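Researcher: Can you fold this with NAP in place?
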Amino acid sequence: MNPRILLLGNTGQLGWELDRALRTHGEVIALDYPQVNYLELKALQDCVLEIKPDIIYNAVAYTAVDRAETEIETAKFINVEGPGLLAKLAKQMGSVLIHYSTDYVFDGKKGRPYREEDTVNPINMYGKTKLEGEKAVQQVGGDYLIFRTSCVYSLRRDSFVTKVLHWSRKHESIKIVDDQVGNPTWARMLAEITAQMLVKHEKEELKSWLGEKRGVYHLAGDGLASRYDWAKSVIEFDPHKDEQVVKEVLPAKSEEFNTAAERPKLSALDCSRFKQTFGVALPDWKEALKLAMES
Ligand SMILES: NC(=O)c1ccc[n+]([C@@H]2O[C@H](COP(=O)([O-])OP(=O)(O)OC[C@H]3O[C@@H](n4cnc5c(N)ncnc54)[C@H](OP(=O)(O)O)[C@@H]3O)[C@@H](O)[C@H]2O)c1
């Protein structure tokens, strides 16, 4: 029998792609704000208990990194209280919670890609709330998978890629930081690989198989890139180059931009645990970007 899947946040970058990817794997009930509002936990609880899913995919998040510095309570509700409640409900219903987190749980000072067991030390409020959210899920002691990812983009919602495309049409010279390094991750590929985990398992077998894999995994596009490298590739792969007015892309340092939140310098993720456990990995970030821009 097909699993009953509750997808929360289906208009976000990842959620929208999950909505497409999960449909072949079970009965999907997809909800977003305002049908579910993570600032109203009782209503969220009632909704989840009524649906009684076998698997919950939580694609809801407060992702405004700079605004999180001041909208701390809102960020906490969405990134901590919401996932914590979902974990409790999942345990109560015998379901599995699939949750997503971020490379911003690290301070970026290690100098190499981070493994799951590395020390966490977020340097901004967004990272702090996402880390608290991970802990809230883990403390419940139910079945969960947490996927920490990095530099997520899509072409259909505001993202770094759509911003670079926009700037390339407005400015002859663009400055982009070369001291923030991550793994660009196309939301579609992240959604497909996490939906693929549901293949080939009957409902009960699937829940216990996912339960056995319980834990935190790093999952992002293969290879590292600074925002500068990433922007240059966006401009190179742009299928409508004739619309560009940009003549040069210049490297810059984070300090030159006055942002409310500090960003880690090298927060790229080492995704080998995911590959060892599930036998698959996301492709090279440049290959994925090329595909995304042609799609
Ligand atoms: N974006 C990145 O670069 C990045 C990097 C690393 C990790 N991640 C993680 O990856 C996951 C997916 O991120 P994403 O980029 O897909 O995020 P996103 O595009 O910002 O989507 C977030 C979703 O949450 C919904 N939401 C916000 N506030 C809500 C509330 N109060 N109640 C209910 N829903 C609410 C949004 O609804 P609306 O559409 O109505 O706003 C949207 O559907 C998140 O866990 C994020 O922390 C992202």
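Model: Folded with NAP in place. The domain at 4-157+183-222+267-283 is CATH 3.40.50.720 (Rossmann fold).
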